[in-house]
TrEMBL record, chain A:
Pfam family, one: Ras
Protein's membrane topology: Lipid-anchor
GO CC, any one term: endomembrane system
Highest taxon of source: Eukaryota
Lineage: Eukaryota, Viridiplantae, Streptophyta, Embryophyta, Tracheophyta
Molecular function via GO: GTP binding
GO process terms (BP): protein transport
Family assignment from sequence similarity: Belongs to the small GTPase superfamily. Rab family.
Protein name, entry field: Uncharacterized protein
Cellular localisation: Endomembrane system
Keywords: GTP-binding, Lipoprotein, Membrane, Nucleotide-binding, Prenylation, Protein transport, Transport
From TrEMBL, chain B:
Protein's UniProt name: Uncharacterized protein
Annotated Pfam families: Ank_2 (PF12796), ArfGap (PF01412), BAR_3 (PF16746), PH (PF00169)
One Gene Ontology molecular-function label: zinc ion binding
Chain positions of ANK repeats: 669-701, 702-734
Origin superkingdom: Eukaryota
SMART domains linked: ANK, ArfGap, BAR, PH
Annotated PANTHER family: ADP-RIBOSYLATION FACTOR GTPASE-ACTIVATING PROTEIN AGD2 (PTHR23180:SF244), CENTAURIN/ARF (PTHR23180)
Transmembrane segments: none
Residues of the BAR domain: 2-226
Keywords associated with the record: ANK repeat, Coiled coil, GTPase activation, Metal-binding, Repeat, Zinc, Zinc-finger
Organism: Eruca vesicaria subsp. sativa
Domain Arf-GAP: 458-594
Domain PH: 286-417
Length: 217, 762
């Protein structure tokens, strides 16, 4: 219960899910982002894990509610509950294992089957620190992500490269489309692949939009 | 070769050449014979190879598939291994054949076409050269002395030329002969020994392959032997069963009584026990009765068809039609009788009939729950008839003899009664009614679950009957009760269960020990173990027992209430049970009991997990004390932390702001008995309170439901129980967070089932 202290106060709450094959480093990305921790011998995730962290965008507090589950089996009982209400997703693969990149397509299908069409997705090539073992060229992943209208970034949960940026970027994008700033073009156009505008739909679609004060504590 | 020491042209040389040529010709003959032999051999080898592979193919087609049931039944997986081996063997044969071809046949052909031919050619050229040399010599020798010098010179030159050509072809001939001489010394040996070697390798490969397979083959053989013996035993057993069946049916036919035409009331006298007794033995789908009945078809012709009917202990009645051959001539006999009434049956045409006549065994389920049994045929004066009338359809059936008819009618009536009983109020019935007789539509999980429960079935009965007082009905002392009231914790007979049912669920929740397989969870069994007929009646019939103790008949009211026996009429039992549970007329009430004291006593009892005491208190209390709150028994102000006046209302209720929760994870303000039970960790206590209707979504001072408490204390098992019993996870506590959000705060939900239950309703 002491897991979070004063982050009750927020303007927006976004649910983000982490998906990708087993062992690509989802849980470590999560722990790096929320607690700045990395565990070299982490175990496989059991059930569903949650973490939160708040970030500030345009003087607004955005609380990210991150959901993480084991990548071993798909199409399980929890699938629909897991994706329900997610507005963003980090689709993680391991740059040293090409097969995890090949499976991205299937994960993407599952994600799109279970979420709103406008969900903001970032393709994340994790374990970028293992340069000498690279099996997925950056360009291959980048062009794939552009084809699929995803953002793309290579990260390393181990040395913390790009982890913060990946999460923040997704959250910012969700916020932008949410607050409709993306529509008038003032938002950074280069950050959107092919200059496309992602419309997240009605505000009601988003898990919970809270205005400050309703639950001051 | 030593023969040709002298290479000069001489008769000896000529002779030698001749003799060599002779042997060469001889050799050629033999080579041709050998060639034929080799050709034949190769043909045989090739045929053998294709033959083996054809055999392997047919074997595979026969049954090496892993998927289709026919293959599996004849040992497909084993065969496929053999097929593979046979293919290997075939390829070895093919290899041997190609070896023979390359090593022997080709070389032989080469020898014959190149070397022997060369010798022949040389011979021809030599003969030609001899001829021209002879001519040239003739010419030269026949020159006269006066011949001109230039002609002499010309002829001499010719002679020289032809002589050298002769010499050349002579050496050629010798050379080719010598080549043959040389080659025959090694070529044949080499080729043939190579062939022998490849034979050796062929058999070696085959041996290796098969010797690897050897243990497996022996294993399969012994397996086959074993199955042979088993099937023999099975056959014997089957033969014996046939024999038994025949003697049994002979016995039965001797016992046939004359049919009872006026049988409308006969079946009432036959107790339900008949059916119960059969269904008690196991909870498995067991056939209560099965056999052929004549069924009047719903079609226009209304003819009679012989159908195989099966009634199982789950109260499902279904019938099979014999497909293919038209059975029994009897239907023609009856068809005439039915025909003139065809109009009556027109409206009973059913989809069952139309969906018929597929290749497989067709099966129709009759819904017994809403059916009625009538002991006559609709305006038919046929004997041995009865009808099953359901809202959708009326089945007019005819048994083959009177006893059979009565048996069917009794069993069907009993089955309908049990079906109705078990269905009534059952919250999660097994879907056997809709899933067909064999339960094919149950998912695998359900099936496993089901099977687990089946195994438990006998235990359930044994456990419940073994509890003190549970060997007899709690109301009328009838022996072997197989019905129970879940919340009252008592066992009773089927008749009394009917009365209980009429009391309403708020008083008694009736379930069958044998037919309601899903309700008998371990916690419910534990609850019953804690109670039992003896104890419960001690509470409910307290005055009666008091009365027995001091038998002076002082209490007039009691004089009119006496406990019925199993032989008493239904109405007597009904009267008694209503007085006992609705009016609580026999309960000993504590004299000075206000609501406050009752509440505090039950609170203590819950805290000390005293199941019997809680039960007694709930029964004896005048008011409903099941939803007692902590605040009812304590002055709250004295208990709870001070609340600053300025504090917002919201914050006051936020559990995060409560010092008690922070310190001991426990704040009792506003808690109900159920909250306490959840913290106690005693599943039986929880069960008891839920059975007596404790409000599952009651919120404490901090707005937390019992489910919130369970999640906060990590008691996932209880959380799941509560969720399955209707706890709503969407209720927000004083801090504005639902149960799922509270669980998320704690970092993870390791139990996926719990996660789904929580998320589902979110």
């Amino acid at each position: 219960m002491g897991a979070y202290k004063s982050d009750d106060d927020y303007d927006y709450l976004f649910k983000l899910v982490l998906i990708g094959d087993s062992g690509v480093g989802k849980s470590n990305l999560l722990s790096r982002f929320t607690r700045n921790e990395f565990s070299i011998e982490s175990k496989s995730t059991i059930g569903v894990e949650f973490a939160t962290r708040s970030v500030h965008v345009d003087e607004k507090t955005i609380k990210a509610q991150l959901w993480d589950t084991a990548g071993q089996e798909r199409y399980r009982a929890i699938t629909s509950a897991y994706y329900r209400g997610a507005v963003g997703a980090l689709l993680v693969y391991d740059i040293t294992r090409h097969v995890t990149f090949e499976n991205v397509e299937r994960w993407l299908k599952e994600l799109r089957d279970h979420t709103d069409a406008n969900v903001v997705i970032m393709l994340v090539g994790n374990k970028a620190d293992l340069r000498h073992l690279r099996a997925v060229p950056t360009e291959e992943a980048r062009s794939f992500s552009e084809r699929e209208n995803m953002f793309f970034m290579e990260t390393s949960a181990l040395d913390a490269t790009n982890v913060e940026q990946a999460f923040t970027h997704v959250l910012t994008q969700i916020y932008r489309v949410m607050s409709r700033k993306a529509l008038d073009g003032t938002g950074d156009p280069t950050s959107l692949p092919k200059g496309q505008t992602i419309d997240i739909g009605n505000k009601d679609d988003v898990t919970a939009v809270k205005s400050s004060g309703c639950c001051s504590g | 070769m030593a023969a040709f020491i002298n290479l000069e042209d001489s008769p000896m040389f000529q002779k030698q050449v001749f003799s060599l040529e002779g042997t060469t010709d001889e050799l050629k003959d033999r080579c041709q014979k050998l060639y034929k032999g080799v050709k034949k051999f190769m043909g045989v080898l090739g045929e053998a190879s294709t033959g083996v592979s054809a055999f392997a193919d047919s074997l595979e087609e026969f049954g090496a598939g892993h998927d289709d049931p026919v293959s599996v039944s004849i040992g497909g997986p084993v065969l496929s291994k053999f097929v593979k081996t046979l293919r290997e063997l075939s390829s070895y044969k093919e290899f041997l054949r190609s070896q023979v071809e390359h090593v022997l046949l080709e070389r032989l052909t080469n020898f014959m076409t190149v070397d022997l031919q060369e010798a022949k050619e040389s011979r021809r050229r030599f003969d030609k050269a001899v001829h021209s040399y002879d001519q040239a010599r003739e010419k030269f020798v026949s020159l006269k002395k006066n011949t001109r010098g230039d002609i002499v010179a010309e002829l001499e030159e010719d002679l020289e030329n032809s002589k050298s050509a002769f010499e050349k072809s002579r050496f050629n001939l010798v050379n080719s002969l010598m080549t043959i001489e040389a080659k025959k010394k090694y070529q044949f040996l080499e080729s043939i020994s190579a062939i022998m070697d490849s034979h050796l390798r062929y058999f070696k490969l085959g041996y290796d392959l098969l010797s690897q397979l050897e243990p497996y083959i022996h294993h399969v053989l012994s397996d086959a032997q074993q199955s042979k013996e088993e099937s023999k035993i099975e056959q014997d057993r089957f033969a014996r069963r046939i024999q038994e069946f025949r003697t049994q049916s002979e016995l039965d036919s001797q016992q046939v009584e004359p049919s009872n035409v006026d049988g409308n009331h006969v079946y009432r006298t036959i107790p339900y026990k008949n059916v119960e007794a059969t269904s008690l033995s196991t909870l498995d789908k067991e056939v209560i009765k099965q056999g052929y009945l004549l069924k009047r078809s719903a079609s226009l012709r209304a003819d009679w068809k012989r159908r195989f009917f099966v009634l199982d202990n789950h109260g499902s009645l279904y019938y099979y039609r014999n497909t293919g051959n038209k059975s029994a001539g009897s239907q023609h006999y009856y068809s005439g009788l039915g025909e003139h009434k065809s109009g009556v049956f027109r409206r009973f045409r059913s989809r069952h009939v139309r969906s018929a006549s597929q290749g497989s065994l067709d099966c129709n389920l009759i819904d017994l729950r809403t059916s009625l049994i009538k002991l006559d045929a609709e305006d038919t004066d046929l004997r041995l008839c009865f009808r099953i009338i359901s809202p959708q359809k009326t089945y007019t059936l005819q048994a083959e003899n009177g006893a059979d008819r009565m048996d069917w009618v009794n069993k069907l009536t009993a089955a309908i009664a049990t079906r109705l009983n078990s269905h009534f109020l059952q919250q999660s019935p097994i879907n056997y009614a809709s899933s067909g007789p064999a339960g094919e539509e149950l998912s695998l999980d359900q099936k496993q679950d089901y099977n687990r429960r089946l195994n438990m079935g006998d235990d359930v009965l044994a456990i419940l009957r073994g509890i003190p007082g549970n060997d007899a009905c709690a109301e009328c002392n009838a022996s072997d009760p197989d019905w129970a009231s879940l919340n009252l914790g008592v066992l009773m007979c089927i008749e009394c269960s009917g009365v209980h049912r009429n009391l309403g669920v708020h008083i008694s929740k009736v379930r069958s020990l044998t037919l309601d397989v899903k309700v008998w969870e371990p916690t419910i069994l534990d609850l019953f173990r804690n109670l039992g007929n003896a104890y419960c009646n001690g509470v409910w019939e307290g005055l009666l027992q008091l009365d027995d103790d001091c038998d002076n008949g002082s209490n007039n009211k009691l004089a009119v209430i006496t406990k019925p026996s199993s032989k008493d009429s239904f109405s007597l039992k009904e009267e008694y049970i209503q007085a006992k549970y609705m009016e609580k007329a026999l309960v000993v009430k504590d004299e000075v009991e206000t609501k406050l004291t009752a509440s505090s006593i039950i609170w203590e009892a819950v805290q000390s997990k005293n199941i019997r005491e809680i039960y007694r208190l709930i029964v004896t209390a005048d008011a409903n004390i099941i939803n007692t709150k902590f605040d009812d028994i304590t002055a709250v102000d004295a208990y709870h932390h001070h609340v600053d006046e300025q504090d917002e209302v919201k914050k006051r209720h936020d559990p995060n702001a409560c010092q008690r929760i922070k310190d001991s994870r426990n704040c009792l303000q506003g808690c109900s008995l159920l909250h306490v039970a959840c913290q106690s960790g005693d599943p039986v206590l929880l069960e008891l309170l839920l059975q007596f209707g404790a409000d599952i979504n009651m919120r404490d001072y901090h707005g937390r439901t019992p489910l919130h408490h369970c999640i906060a204390s990590g008691n996932n098992a209880f959380a799941k129980v509560l969720l399955r019993r209707g706890a709503r996870p969407s209720i927000e506590d004083g801090g504005g967070l639902s149960v799922l959000e509270r669980a998320m705060e704690m970092g993870a939900i390791a139990d996926e089932e719990l996660f789904v239950l929580l998320a589902e309703c979110h």
